[in-house]
Amino acid sequence: MHASTSDKVFAALETFRIELPSWGFANTGTRFGKFIQAAAATTTEEKFSDAGQVHLLTGVCPTVALHVLWDCPKGIDSTDEIKKFSGRFGVAPGSINPNLFQDQEYKYGSFGNPDIAVRQRALQHTRDSIEIARRLNSRDISFWFADGSNYPGTANIRQRKKWFEEALQEAHRKLSPDQRMLVEYKPFEPAFYHTDIADWGMALLLSRAAGPQAKVLVDTGHHYAAQNIEQIVAWLLSENMLGGFHFNDRRYADDDLTMGSIDPYQVFRIFHEIRFFEWESGRCADIAYMVDQSHNLKGKLEAMIQTVTMAQQLFAKAALVDPEKLATAQKKCDLVIAEVALQDAFATDVRPAIQEWRDSKGLPKDPMQAFRESGYLERITKERAAKNSHNVSSYA
Ligand code: RM4
Ligand code: MN
Ligand code: MN
User: Fold this and answer.
1) pLDDT digit string (tens) for 267-311?
2) What are phi and psi of 174, to 5 degrees?
3) Which atom of ligand 1 has the smallest separation from the CA of 246?
4) Which atom of ligand 1 is nearest to the CA of 221?
5) Distance 184 CA to ligand 2 centre (A)
6) What does each C-alpha distance from 163 to 81, 101, 114, 269 come to in angstroms?
7) In angstroms, what is the span from residue 353 Cα to ligand 1's centroid?
8) C-alpha–C-alpha distance, residues 115 and 304, integer Å
9) Residue 375 burial by CB count (10 A; 0-12/13-18/19+): exposed, middle or buried?
């Protein structure tokens, strides 16, 4: 391989880290049923153990995202225990996800609920989540709302927007100076007529209304099929409003498929926009890269290892685009040269360079093979099988 290619790949990998979701290790399913895995994590401790295993083998997943309702059964009082798990398994708590959708009270929404008592309850849960984040040294509190309505005329859309602004402002006031709140959007599901934060524009306006520490979170699965996600990314970057990603792939809706399994070029283009912005502006984009996938057919740890290695490949490929050459071609409107700058980078096989990089870090060259040889899966399957015969966690 060309020397400068592996230098570029090495430099890119040094900066690339990606957060794992705790809920990706638990049993989940679809609305049609659940296929239970004997090895699935049944406790927060087991989720930390599994995330720790993925980090051990890949070296690039130092944090695990937590969902408050599923991972902090004692609320704020769960934090001491979580710190212990973190120390034991070598992964730190990452973003904290308040859970504003699962309780019965949230049937008609959380921050958008017409009942003030429910809105206040949602706000209290948010305050607790911010406190949990503070105690765990987590920077990001990551909001996804299931709020919306199923039938025309049943919700006052403008009023609900106002309630959202007020609640997010109130939450923002509770942030410590170094914390951020990330606002995620989704066009449909579970609501099927209107979603209160349906797209990046709504998330952007609400984040701006909330305050300077609020940024937009782009979940790659939360767009209509033809949408140009890298353009959204470019606009958010230019507005200094891109806070992070939830990565997953999709073919139809919010499918939660393995990152890059359907359209790896899409992820490459997203990474390219970020790197091009950084090159042009001389600024380092402050972006939290996170995985948001719950697999119910693939083995959970294997799916995460696959995701992480795919993320590294696509990030490394994006680092091979020559920004100067691209900028010159764009200025001259040399369409073919500009397009080929991306295509050539995407076509380069970066796997040998990534293996060398892993080797230089004392990591296994092939994390998947190392996992299969480690005996970890056999051990947890034995340990957890009995618990999983009657334990099914919620869909994520
Ligand atoms: C949503 C969204 C959120 C996740 C929930 C459970 O579709 O992607 O990020 O927390 O699912
Ligand atoms: Mn998400
Ligand atoms: Mn989703």
Assistant:
1) 999 999 999 999 999 999 999 999 999 999 999 999 999 999 999
2) -85, -10
3) 9
4) 8
5) 7
6) 35, 16, 9, 36
7) 34
8) 40
9) exposed
Residue 52 near residue 90 (C-beta atoms within 8 A) = yes
Tell me the CA–centroid distance for residue 339 and ligand 2, in Å: 31
Question: 3 pLDDT exceeds 70?
Answer: no
- Residue 368 backbone phi and psi in degrees, to 5: -65, -45
Is the entire prediction scored with pTM above 0.85?
A: yes
Q: Is the CB of 99 under 6 A from ligand 1?
A: no
What confidence tens digit (pLDDT) does each residue in 16-48 have? 999 999 999 999 888 888 889 999 999 999 999
Pairwise pLDDT comparison (154 vs 389), residue with the higher score = 154
Q: What stretch of H or E contains 54?
A: helix 44-58
**Ligand 1 pocket residue status of 246, Cβ below 6 Å:** yes
Find the farthest-apart pair of alpha carbons in the chain and give their distance in angstroms, rounded.
65
Is 372 exposed, middle or buried, given 0-12, 13-18 or 19+ CB atoms closer than 10 A? Answer: middle
Residue range 155-178, pLDDT digits in tens: 999 999 999 999 999 999 999 999
